[in-house]
Amino acid sequence: MSTRVNHHKATPALAKALSDLSMAIGKTALDPTLKHLIDIRVSQLNGCTFCLDMHAKEAKIAGERELRLYHLTAWRESPLFSAKEKAALAFAEALTHITSEGISDELYRSVAEHFSEVELSELNFAIVAINAWNRLGITSRMEPGAMDVAYGLNKANLA
After folding, report:
1. Are 92 and 41 contacting, i.e. CB atoms less than 8 angstroms apart?
2. Distance CA 149, CA 152 (A)
3. Which residues contact 76 (CB under 8 A, 6 or more apart)?
4. Tell me: the pLDDT tens digits for 51-85?
5. What is the pTM of this model?
6. How far apart are CA 32 and CA 97, in angstroms?
7. Class of domain 7-156
8. Which residues lie closer than 8 Å to 75 by C-beta, 6 or more apart?
9. For the chain, give me the number of helices (H) and strands (E)?
10. Where are the domains of the chain?
11. How far apart are CA 58 and CA 33, in angstroms?
């Protein structure tokens, strides 16, 4: 794969702003395990191999079970995810592939059963952020694994 625009070099202030958003999301009450699942699932949906690679490695380093990572594409049918995780994944998919109808009241109620208003907002920002990173990664065609050493992702022992 060839690298195209390097957003961090071309527009450093904008890249930093998005990085700052991601760092702020990491400091919220959002469960880090759930954040990893959202990052991976949205990256799968968007076809961003760089982000998919990075977030799968981060999840493994953080202790996520590999079987849950394998089941993530079939989360609706899998017994390995909680009702809260399933609600968040449904919300992430709906926001990633948003339709002209937007988010249905039924889906919103389902998510609101598991998340407070603040948590729901944090979840929404997490989904927005990974979608933004995916779009930058897809445009730049960053090579999966290219930042493993810099980000410490080689500790995942996934090659």
Report:
1. yes
2. 5
3. 86
4. 999 999 999 999 999 999 999 999 999 999 999 99
5. 0.90
6. 23
7. mainly alpha
8. 41, 81, 85, 86, 89
9. 9, 0
10. 7-156
11. 10
